[in-house]
Amino acid sequence: MLVSWKYRPRNTLIQRLDPRSRLIFLACVILGITIPGVWDFRIIFPLFLVTVGLYLLARIEWKDVRRTWLFIFVLIFFIVGLNGILSGRGGPTSVMNDNSAPLFTIPLFIPGTAIGFAVKITMVKLFFALTQVTRMLSMAILAIPLPYTMDPNIYGVAFRRLGASDKVSFTMDLAFRFLPTLARDMSITIDSQRARGYEMDNLKGGVVARLRRLAPLVVPVTMQSTVTGEEVIDAMDLRAFGTSPRTWLKELKYAPLDYAYIGLGVAILVTTCVLKYGFNIGDFWMPEFLLRIAAGG
User: Is residue 110 packed enough to be buried (19+ CB in 10 Å), middle (13-18) or exposed (0-12)?
Assistant: First the structure.
C-alpha cells in the first residue's frame, strides 16, 4: 500500500492555489535563479526573501518538516557551502582564481601520511559560498512545502493537465509517494526487529561489521518495496493502464489568484533573463567594504 507525505488540509493562501500554478511558479523561479552566469547576490537575495515569504504563508508545522530540514541543512551547508569556501568550484573564474589576501588558512593532512597542504580562506570565497547557499536555500524553501500542502490525490492530474502523458503523470504520482512509503516500511521493520530483541541503538565494530548488522533491516525493506511495486503493476494491468487514454476523477480550474501567481513566476524569470542577457548584470558581486577587506585594506 502506498502512503503519502504528512499532508493535512490548511486554510491557507498557498493551499487554495491550483497545483499547476504552483508547479509553474516553481519551475520559473528555479530557471531564473540558475541561469548560467548569474552570481549576483543582489539578484539572488530578493528571490530568497520571496521564497521565505511564500513558505511562511504555507504555515507548515516545524515538527512535520524538521527531519527534512536537517537533511537539507547538511546537504547545503556541509557540501555546497564548504565546497564554495574551500575551492570556489562551480563558480566564476574570478572566484576559482582568487588571489586576494587570505583571512586565515586551514591545514589539511592525509591521515597516516606526512602529506598535507594549506587551504587559504578568502573573503571572496566566503561571500561566494554565502551566495551559493542562498541560491540553494531559495529552491529548497520553495519546493519543500509542495508535498506537505498539496493533496496527494491530485499529483497525477496536475501533471496531466500540464500536458504530460498519462504514463508520465502516473510516474510522477508514484515518485511523490516513494520516499514516504519507503520510510513507512523502514519504521515498521525497525519496530519489528526491536520487538524480537534485535539491538538497534548500539552498532559496534567496523564499517563492514555494521553493514552486516543492518542486513535484518535492508533485506526486509528491499523485499517489501519489490512486493509493493509488483502490487502496483498488477493493479495497473488489471485496469488496462496504457491501452487507451485515461480519465481523471479530479478537475482543476484556474482562479484569478492562480493567474497572478503564474504571472509573478514568469515576471521573475523574464526579469533575470533581461538583466543577464539584456544588461549583462549578474556577474559575481561583492559589497565595497568586503572588497576592501579582501584586498587587505
Answer: exposed
How far apart are alpha carbons 72 and 95 in whole angstroms?
Answer: 25
* pTM for this prediction: 0.80
Cell 520510510, residue located: 183
Please give the torsion angle defined by the CA atoms of residues 154, 158, 164 and 168, in that order, rounded to the nearest 10 degrees.
-30
Q: What is the mean pLDDT of each run of 10 residues along the chain (297 residues)?
A: 66 90 94 89 94 92 86 86 78 77 74 69 87 92 88 85 87 78 75 74 60 73 80 81 79 92 95 92 86 71
CB atoms within 10 A of CB 44: 23
Task: Determine the residue type at 208.
Answer: V
Q: What is the DSSP string of 72-139?
A: HHHHIIIIIIHHHHHT-TTS-HHHHT--SPPSEEEEEE-TTSS-EEEEEE-HHHHHHHHHHHHHHHHH
